[in-house]
Design goal:
single chain; Diaminopimelate Epimerase, Chain A, domain 1; TIM Barrel; eight-stranded mixed beta sheet; globular; disordered N terminus; disordered C terminus
């Protein structure tokens, strides 16, 4: 199949016949003027925005489809500022261990039953491991992780893995520990922890209890997911694209792919081109190492143009862990340390050597790769700011659009540094809903928790921040992204977490439309409803800008259009990027790293 490239659209000549005219609803342009009566589309491009009568008179024709929105809202298609496309597909493939409202796991017993049920499915029966994703110890009645003993009750004949919702921790059964080679003789790896029984004395390091953190957890997820049947693995990207389109996204991200998975993504797209745009970022450590080994290569292949719906944009760095999992690197101790940790426990860095961090940034700047960095704790943010400052001084001025992913506990002085260094903060705002109560009571305490995802500080400095879902850590739920920024209401206690950080609904919409387009340097073709831009659009049951803020959460996605063509809901005969059958098996290596 020939390559399909999405290039910058040109403003067409007037008085042509449009393919589609949309009217009869609230049209949010996210620009000036902020609203319009009608939008006309021709050849996938917006050709008119304005008065309904003028749209019909100027652009209507015998073949023009005129659609009445019937009071629903029309917005620019949503743009995923950070997520993991393959992980979204994975989320839809393995056992769902999420708590409400995305699942119904409330106890370790219900978690065990979910895993047993999945083991009996077609995919589960063919899988080498029994595996599930999404449990949250903060939401389990026991308020603790499942242990090897709990998971031994699921199976003693197959290894079992339960992945924490952060995707930075997980728990395995006894066979899982055996498969990984984790026992009392195995010390903790750098950047990770093998948790041990407190009441069992086993020399020299202690008997593992099954709970694994960070680099100790990664081999478990890699091994378990490598054991999924190949058909399921090949369908991950396609399932992810379909799920994202169902939430109104027309541009999605594969944020932090291994070089092998980046190649697999391109192979799959060559077999069946994606109908929504996918922006990919390679792991910075792998890209840097590959370039050092062979300076004449370009392991990323970054480009502003899409081929078969995919383009690589740069690299993703991983500098710390998860705040709700209490592995993020903070400058001050956690309110309540996990496990056997002491009261001064602050988490830990993913990369201890600042020189390694600087080398990754310098390499990216030299190659023209955009840099995204996973930084949750404020200590890791300090490390990143230091590296960007030093790299920018050496590389000189440039429009690099460097992004601090999550920036969950960013201090106000760090937001100032972001502004000075032109670092774009991309907040995981849904933390206020999912883990706001956990932060208040266990992780950070009331004062620090009130300022997580500090969007208001960014707005006060006239910064175009973005917000993201980080799926599969959460569902790729665009409406939840909007609601969590506007209300900041927590899941369990229903309190408003840091009301001074709330933003307007329009600012929230901008964070996943025009601001996200600017993050990708695609603001000339996406992110707003303007003449000359791609007709990437989403139709909602209600207008998030005008409804009561507390009602935003109930808005539904009615339809998603990519370049004027409906990609959700999919028809029975066509789905968004169905499972491809390439000429040869794509070399997936199963590292679906997420970064909550």
């Amino acid at each position: 199949m020939a390559d399909q490239q999405h290039t910058t659209p040109q403003t067409p000549a007037p008085y042509e016949e449009a393919d589609l005219i949309l009217h009869g609803g609230e049209i949010v342009t996210v620009t000036e003027p902020p609203t319009a009566e009608a939008v006309a589309v021709k050849d996938g491009v917006i050709v008119f925005v304005g008065d309904h009568a003028e749209a019909v008179d100027r652009w209507g024709g015998l073949r023009t489809k005129v659609r009445d929105l019937e009071g629903r809202a029309l917005l620019p298609g949503f743009i995923d500022a950070h997520g993991h496309l393959g992980g979204i597909g994975l989320q839809a493939t393995i056992a769902n261990l999420l708590a409400a409202p995305d699942g119904d796991v409330t106890t370790i017993a219900s978690l065990q039953q979910k895993l047993r049920n999945w083991a009996d499915t077609d995919v589960g029966q063919e899988s080498e491991w029994i595996v599930g994703f999404g449990y949250d110890d903060a939401m389990l009645a026991e308020k603790q992780h499942p242990t090897r003993k709990d998971l031994d009750e699921v199976s003693t004949s197959r290894p079992v893995l339960a992945i924490h919702q952060s995707f930075h921790l997980g728990a395995v059964n006894s066979l899982g520990l055996e498969a990984l080679g984790y026992d009392s003789n195995r010390k903790d790896p750098e950047g990770g922890v093998i948790r041990r029984w407190e009441d069992v004395i086993a020399e020299p390091h202690g008997e593992p209890n099954g709970v694994l953190e960070e680099t100790a957890f990664s081999p478990a997820s890699d091994t378990a997911l490598a054991g999924l049947p190949m058909a399921a693995q090949l369908g991950l990207f396609g399932k992810g694209a379909a799920s994202a389109a169902a939430f109104g996204f027309t541009t999605v991200q594969e944020g932090g792919a291994t070089l092998t998975n980046l190649g697999a993504l391109r192979e799959i797209a060559a077999a069946v081109p994606f109908e929504i745009d996918v922006v990919a970022y390679a792991r910075a450590d792998q890209a840097t190492a590959a370039l050092e080994k062979d300076p004449d290569t370009d392991p990323v292949g970054a480009s502003p143009e899409y081929v078969n719906g995919v383009r690589a944009a740069g690299v993703k760095m991983f500098l710390d862990g998860s705040p709700q999992g209490r592995t993020a690197w903070l400058s001050k101790p956690y309110k309540t340390p996990p496990g056997n940790e002491l009261d001064d426990y602050c988490g830990y860095p993913a990369i201890k050597d600042d020189a390694v961090v600087l080398r990754q940034v310098l390499t990216a700047y030299a190659k023209g790769w955009q840099v995204l960095a996973h930084v949750n704790g404020d200590a890791s943010i300090d490390q990143f700011i230091g590296a960007v400052r030093a790299a920018a001084a050496k590389a000189g001025p440039g429009d690099r659009r460097t992004v601090a992913i999550h920036a969950q506990t960013a201090r106000e002085d760090q937001i100032n540094e972001f502004a000075l260094l032109r670092i774009i903060p991309s907040f995981f705002s849904m933390h206020t809903f999912y883990w706001g109560d956990w932060y208040r009571k266990t992780v950070l305490g009331e004062e620090r928790a009130a300022n997580i995802s500090p969007a208001r500080w960014a707005l006060d400095r006239r910064m175009a921040y973005t917000s993201h879902h980080d799926a599969p850590v959460a569902l790729p739920n665009s409406i939840a992204i909007l609601s969590s920024q506007v209300t900041r209401r927590t899941r369990t206690d229903k309190v408003v977490l840091g009301p001074e950080q709330c933003v307007s609904a329009l600012d929230a919409v901008r964070s996943i439309t025009i601001n996200a387009a600017q993050q990708y340097d695609e603001q000339d073709r996406k992110g707003s409803i303007e003449v000359g831009k791609l007709a990437d659009l989403v139709i909602l049951s209600a207008n998030p800008v005008t409804v009561d803020p507390e009602e935003i959460q109930h808005i539904e996605i009615a339809e998603t259009l990519k370049a004027g063509r409906t990609v959700h809901p999919a028809t029975a005969a066509r789905t968004v990027n169905p499972t491809p059958v390439p000429d040869r098996t794509p070399p997936l290596d199963h590292e679906w790293h997420c970064s909550c």
